[in-house]
Specification:
Elements lengths: L1 H25 L7 H31 L8 H27 L5
Helix pairs in contact: 1-3, 2-3
Length: 104
Amino acid sequence: MRECLAKKAADSQKTLKRAENALAAALPRWDEDPKYVGQAKAKLAVSERAFIKYRQSQCDFAASLTGGASGNSHEIKRLACVAELNNRRAAQLSDAAADLALKQ
């Protein structure tokens, strides 16, 4: 089970990276004043760093809820959390990219 979740967490990280790259590539093509494009790029970078910190804290908390469980329980819970949060974040970024009105 742990190996399966480790793969899901790694796959979700790749999915998240693709979504981040797609949004970063879409922003310069956004049909908006360059001032706002620049602001969005900067805020995306801040958001990415904040997400990494949030994911770490949240998944550490989720793992702690296994209490005194034995074996790989803590790591299994943490990996499941990482995969879930990465996939949610990737969906959010994909939605944001899809909502941009791009230049023709």
